[in-house]
Amino acid sequence: MGRIVMPAVSSTSGYPETLTLNGGTVSDLRAIEGLEMEADIAQTNLGPAGAIKKHVSNVRWTPASLTVGLGMGKPMADWLKASLAQPLSPASGEVVIGDAAYKAQRSIAFSNAVLTRLIVPALDGASKEPGTLLAAFEAEQVKIGKGDGRDIRVKAPKAKAWIASNFRIEIGNLPCARVARIESFSWACGVATDSVGIFRDPAKLPAKVTVPDLQLTISAADHAAWAAAAQAWFVDGKHLDTDEMAGRIVLLGPDMKAELAIISFANIGFRRFQTILPIAGEKVARFAVTLYAEAMALEVKV
Fold this sequence. Notes:
By secondary structure, this protein is mainly beta. It has one domain (3-40, 53-300). 8% of the residues lie in helices and 51% in strands. The chain has helices spanning 74-85, 223-234, and strands at residues 3-5, 8-9, 16-21, 24-25, 29-34, 37-45, 52-61, 64-68, 91-98, 104-120, 123-124, 133-138, 141-146, 154-156, 167-171, 179-182, 185-194, 203-210, 214-219, 245-252, 259-273, 286-292, 295-300. Strands 2, 3, 4, 5, 8, 9, 10, 12, 13, 17 and 18 form an 11-stranded antiparallel sheet that branches. Strands 11, 15, 16, 19, 20, 21, 22 and 23 form an 8-stranded antiparallel sheet that branches. A two-stranded antiparallel ribbon has the order 1-14. A hairpin with a 6-residue loop joins strand 2 (8-9) and strand 3 (16-21).
């Protein structure tokens, strides 16, 4: 049964906004920011009088950022999955801004957008916060148009409830059932511009990809098993490519069984390990581990 999706409210304009991406509507959209006009200003010193002349040296559109829930829909889920697998996976779409009655007043169309960042919030077993992902992109071309007055509310499947405490993590053969917290982490892709020919808008090309570290806080009950693995890694020299691990973070529904999304990591290794446990007091004793990874993938169940 479909539901009416209420548009996200812009944090800058205060008006409702909707987003289409690669021909489909992005559902469970919480916020849209960016896609603003911006110029670089060059200065020229005209002499001893101290006068300074300013002029525009370059114009561009600022990056866009989207806050979405896991009920984002297939177009958005497919683009995120493709971009992490192959950064050269551009997308095109349109932001439509409505009035207080949800009638389209203005549109911002973009093309050849490159995903530049994907931020996963902190996952904490004690959290009661609704979970969302933040995705940022840079578009090669942007065009502003007039709205056609249509109702920007659309029908979409029922939203998926996800709380930041609903997760499961798996790292190799290590015990992970008592991982209490995973710090927020961010996948990033740099963008290079290529100004060629007669085109005013330079091409946007993906450059360096940065795969995040994973910072875990784990119950002291599992310290011995993790300490043995860290000893083998740091002291015994078992840190070759063949010793690296695979892992994944599974984002779960309210029943802690339904898998809403899977974030996979390849070639995981230890970066830092807390050897000495803190003294137990009123709080449960925990220890910290930092892991690196060489690749990250995302699959949102739609």
